[in-house]
Specification:
The chain has helices spanning about 1-15, 15-25, 35-65, 70-90, 105-115, 115-130, 130-150, 150-195. Helix 2 packs across helix 8 (about 150-195), helix 4 runs antiparallel to helix 8 (about 150-195) and helix 6 (about 115-130) runs antiparallel to helix 7 (about 130-150). The two termini are about 30 Å apart. By secondary structure, the protein is mainly alpha-helical. The protein has one domain. The chain is globular.
Length: about 200
């Protein structure tokens, strides 16, 4: 159970359902509820497929490039840290242009849900915990995110813009702490490889 939460929490934070909510609301503004439900399904399915693809071939790519798990943990941790800091500082400036017909796949599915933060997190977790727990964590995190997006109009009316922004910043603060932990573990793995 502890291993599941070690995978699930970083995955959920990387997906960032609260931070995605205001962007999702902006992208689906003016779309009928029936069409919005299709957009939610399309976005979750796209995010799942992209996540599983990277989980399947990520390790092979690393091996081909001669990159060790320790190297990737440090590099991935630095990237996650940068993503979280940029998101904390520049929440308001994230703007995405979109085609209303394909917004479920792009930009909501990729890169909002299955973006660099999630892909990096999954590859790091697969190196540390295998494939089963990261896959299960991704399915549950995206299911919860899909449910949240499904009821986004009600949730957003309760939270408001300020509430969503505050929760997103707290989630990104947690992600930055997880990134530092990954860097620390990566350095320890690299030191063990030298011995």
């Amino acid at each position: 159970m502890a291993e599941f939460f070690l995978c699930f929490i970083p995955v959920l934070v990387a997906v960032d359902p609260i931070g995605t909510l205001p962007l999702f609301m902006g992208l689906t503004r003016g779309i009928q509820v029936r069409r919005m439900r299709k957009v939610v399904f399309q976005s979750i399915l796209t995010a799942l497929l992209v996540s599983f693809l990277f989980l399947a071939v990520g390790k092979i790519i690393l091996k081909y490039l001669g990159v060790s798990v320790g190297d990737f943990m440090v590099a991935g941790g630095i990237l996650l840290f940068l993503f979280s800091v940029v998101d904390i500082l520049f929440f308001e400036s994230r703007e995405l242009s979109s085609d209303k017909e394909s917004i479920g796949a792009v930009p909501i599915g990729v890169p909002l849900l299955a973006g660099p933060a999630l892909i990096t997190t999954l590859m790091l977790l697969a190196g540390e915990h295998g494939y089963a727990m990261p896959m299960l964590s991704t399915v549950i995190a995206l299911f919860l995110t899909g449910t949240m997006l499904f009821f986004s109009r009600k949730i957003y009316s309760i939270l408001g813009k300020t509430g969503a922004k505050t929760l997103s910043k707290l989630a990104n603060l947690l992600l930055s702490a997880i990134a530092v932990m990954m860097i620390r573990k990566g350095i320890l793995v690299m030191m063990a490889e030298i011995k």
